[in-house]
Amino acid sequence: MPQKRFNIALSAELEQYFREKAEISGQSMASVIGLALGEYYQERKMIEKVKPELDKVQAQFELLKEIVKDSNSNNSNNILTQLAEQLDSNQ
Predict the structure, then answer these.
(1) Domain count for the chain
(2) Which of 2, 90, 85 is nearest to 54 (CA)?
(3) How many other β-carbons are positioned within 10 Å of the β-carbon of residue 10?
(4) Closest among 67, 61, 62 to 79, alpha carbons compared
(5) Nearest to residue 33, comparing CAs of 53, 51, 9, 50?
(6) Confidence bin at 62 (pLDDT 50/70/90)
(7) 75 or 41: which leads in pLDDT
(8) Phi/psi at 7 (nearest 5 deg)?
């Protein structure tokens, strides 16, 4: 894949970090920063891929919290029904 060049501004802390990583690895700072950005990009793609599933789990957890909170009321059966329906729809 063709690469493009960019000028970026780094804080002194980031500059020092990447300079040290470059010295240790024997690579240029540009290469080390490019690798770091590539890793960041892959992580973000993975997060975006699993986020909808995590949101579903969170919604189910919220229903479970309501069940515990309302366990002595008549409302708990309704909440259990909602949770069961939601779990069934996820399969």
Answers:
(1) 1
(2) 90
(3) 13
(4) 67
(5) 9
(6) confident
(7) 41
(8) -95, 130
Residue with tokens 């920063």: 33
And the tokens for 66? Answer: 């309501």
**What is the average pLDDT value for the chain, to the nearest integer?**
85
Let me know if residue 6 belongs to a domain.
no
Cα distances (angstroms) measured from residue 59 to each of 52, 69, 74, 85: 11, 15, 21, 12
| Full residue range of the structural domain in which residue 72 is found | 12-89
Give 38-50 pLDDT, tens digit per residue.
Answer: 999 999 999 999 9
Q: What phi and psi values does residue 70 have, to the nearest 5 degrees?
A: -105, 25
Place of tokens 């950005």: 37
C-beta of residue 86 within 8 angstroms of C-beta of residue 63: yes
- Residue 39 covered by a domain: yes
Nearest residue to 90 (alpha-carbon basis) of 60, 64, 51, 50:
60
